[in-house]
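Handout, page 2. Input:
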Amino acid sequence: MDISPLQKIRYQYQPKIPAILNESIQSIGFSEGQKTHAKADEEKLSALFPNTYGKPIVTITKGSSEKLSRTLTVGVILSGGQAPGGHNVIAGLFDGLMKGNTASKLIGFKGGPGGLVDNTFITLDKTIIDQYRNTGGFDIIGSGRTKIETPEQFAKASETVKKHKLDALIVIGGDDSNTNAALLAEYFIKEKIPCSVIGVPKTIDGDLKNEYIETSFGFDTATKTYAELIGNIQRDAASARKYWHFIKLMGRSASHIALECALACRPNITLISEEVEAKKQTLKEITETICSIICVRAAQKENFGVVLIPEGLIEFIPEFKTLIAALNDLLAHHAQELNALETADDKILFVSSKLDKTLSLLYQSLPHDIKLQLILDRDPHGNVQVSRIETEKLIVAMVEKRLAELKSQGSYTGSFSYQTHFFGYEGRCAFPSNFDADYCYALGMTAWALAAQGYTGYLSSVRNLTKPAHEWIAGGIPLTMMMNIEKRHGTEKPVIQKALVTLDSKPFKTFAAHRDKWAVTTSYRFPGAIQYFGPSEIADRPTETLLLEHS
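Output:
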C-alpha cells in the first residue's frame, strides 16, 4: 500500500489510556452503583425494557475477574455517519480481546447494521487492524444507516449471532444506532440468546452526551478541522477586506459544532439554533440582526466578516418549524401525486395549494431553489433532509434584499459582496486528533471489558476527559437511562434523548458574553491545523466546550 509519511507515523502512535486499562487482566475489576432511572417516561421504558431497564452504572476499578480471560467471539458494527476515531475504537476493542485471550476472534459486519442482518462480514486480524490504527474514516468495514426494527430483521440478526456464536456485539454509533443497540440487548435476553450488546458513543454533532458521556467521539477532530478552515477564511477576509463569508456547519439537531467553532475562532456572527427557538425569532428578525452588524462594520470601513450558521437552523425558526411539519405531513400523504408532476413549478404550485393561507404565503416568499429543497425526498424518519437545504443561501438572499432597502433609505452606505460555504464532509473522516485517537481507543478497550464481563445494554463510557489520559475513568452507562419516548411516524418509540445546546451552560454563556464585541471589532483567532506532535497543551488539548464545561 502506498501511504503518506503522516499515515505511516500515525500507524505507530500508541494511544494514551486510563491507568486501569493498562493493568494486567488479573488486576481489573468492576464496581456497580445504584439502580438507575430514565429522566422521563420511566413507566413506559421499564415496560418496554423489562430485562435491561434500571441497571447500575459500572466503573472499571482495581480488582479481579476471571471472565476477562475468556475466549470470546465478538462482532462489531459501524453505524450511521462517519466520525474521526472509529478505526481506533475497533483497534482498542481488538487489543482488549487479545489482552484477555489471544484465541479470541473479532468479526466486522460490513456496511453497518445491514451487514448483521445479511451476515456480510470479515474477520478482523492484526494485519488488517494495523493498517487502520489512528486513521480517519470508517472504511475498514464501512457503515450504513439500516435500522433493525422489523420482526424479520431481528430474526435475521439473531440467526447471524447464532451462526457465529457471538458472545458480544459492539455497536458504534449515535443516538439512533445506540437506541437500536438497546433494543437488540433486550431482544437477545428475551429470546435467550447469550450475546451481550455494548454501544459506543459516536457523532461529530456532539448531541450524544450527558454527565456520564462527556462528549461523543469525533466531535473534537471535526470541530478542529472546521475551525482551521474558518480561521483560514477569517484571515482571508481580513486580508481582502471585501467579502462577507456565510458558512453553514454540520449539526442538524444541535448547534454544538457552531458554538465550539465560535469559541475557537471568534467570528463576527454565530447563529445558535436553540437560542433562535427559545427567543421565537423569525427569519426577518435574524436578517435584521445580521444587517445591523453589517451596517456598523461598514461605517467602520470594514465591509467584510464571517457568519456561522448551524445546518439545522431552519427547523428551529418557529415559522419554518411549523412549515416543515406541514410539509412532512403533506409529503407523507401526497408523495405519489407530487412525484407524478413533471416540472418544478408544477410541484411548487401543488404544494402551495395544499398549505393553509399563512404557510402558503411563507412558502411562496422563499427563493425558488429553497422551495424545491424543502420538498425533496424525506430521510428514513420522514424528516426533511436539512443538509440539502442551502440555508446559508437563504439567509444571504434575505440579507441582500434588506441591505438594498436600507441603502435606498440612506441608512447603509457600504458595499456587500459575499461567499457561501458548507463545511460538512470535510470533518467527518479527518485523521483523528490525539484526543480522539486516545479517547476512541479507550472506548474500544472499555467496550471489550464490559462485554467480557457479560454486561449488556450498556454504553461504553470514559470520563474525566479534561485530565491527562491516565486519570480518565472507564466504565459503562445503561442505555435505558438515556432514553425517553418520542413520536416517530405517528407511533411512540423509545429513543436516546439528543443533547441540545442549553442557554444556561458555561460554553454558551461565555460565547454570549463576548459576541457583541466580536461582532463589531475584528477579533479573529486562527486555530491552525490539528497538531499531532509537540507540547501536550497543544497536541492533546480538548475542545473549548469540554474545557469550559469542566472548568
